[in-house]
Design a protein that fits this description.
This protein is of the alpha+beta class and 203 residues long. It has three domains: 41 residues, no CATH class; 109 residues, Homing Intron 3 (I-Ppo) Encoded Endonuclease, Chain A; 44 residues, no CATH class. Helix content is 25%, strand content 13%. It is built from five helices and eight strands, in the order ααββββαββαββα. The strands form four sheets. A two-stranded antiparallel sheet has the order 1-2. It has a two-stranded antiparallel ribbon with strand order 3-4. β1 and β2 form a beta hairpin.
């Protein structure tokens, strides 16, 4: 019995990449899934250098403002920049490396614009944090991973509200006698009431 053998190379004209799905290479398959066609609906502009292509994806503002990445983001909200098919980088790291120099060994880049003392009011936190898209070299500071975490508004010691939005302040603030951690009295009381209801329901 003859059996169908899928093509080894992409069936899109003038493409010699390996076929991966539906007889297309990964690039053309994704484009087909996204736009319904394999050709360039909007051809990419030609750039003389990689640097030109990078900065075309950045909304450059004043020297002290955030320069937001307008290209692709990963699932954590950080910009992604592909130099070629085999080399991809975090956009803020690429910006720092090409504007200032290599990140010192053992260090990570901290977004100074996101730190507790200077955080902007519009920051949503987490993957939606606008500062994760910032590639302004002036806002990027090499720090150890521990220092980076301690500076972050997401660090437990820097949070001003519990996950439910209640403030860690006044009568609502409770300090755990064992760990010293800050706790939300409102959430703690609700958890106690829920446990009590569960006990009554079990009788």
């Amino acid at each position: 019995m003859l059996r169908f053998l899928p093509p080894k190379t992409c069936t899109v004209e003038d493409c010699d990449r390996d076929a991966t799905r539906r007889a297309m290479c990964e690039m053309h398959y994704r484009r087909w899934m996204r736009t319904g066609r394999t050709g360039d609906a909007h051809p990419r502009p030609a750039f003389a250098t990689v640097e030109e292509r990078f900065w075309s994806k950045v909304d450059v503002q004043g020297p002290d403002e955030c320069w937001l990445w307008t290209g692709a983001l990963n699932d954590k909200g950080y910009g992604r920049f592909s130099v070629d098919a085999d080399n991809g980088f975090y956009a803020h790291i690429w910006s720092y490396t090409h504007s200032v120099g290599p990140v010192p060994e053992g260090m990570t880049l901290d977004h100074e614009c996101h730190n507790a003392a200077t955080r902007r009011a519009e920051c949503a936190g987490g993957p939606a944090c606008v500062h994760r898209r910032c590639v302004n070299p002036a806002h990027l500071v090499p720090r150890t991973a521990a220092d980076n975490t301690n500076q972050s508004m997401n660090s437990p010691g820097n949070r001003t509200h519990c996950p439910s939005g209640h403030p860690y302040a006044g009568a609502n603030l409770r300090i755990n006698a064992t760990s010293g951690a800050r706790q939300c009295r409102t959430c703690g009381n609700e958890q106690d009431r829920a446990r009590y209801r569960d006990l009554l329901a079990a009788d």
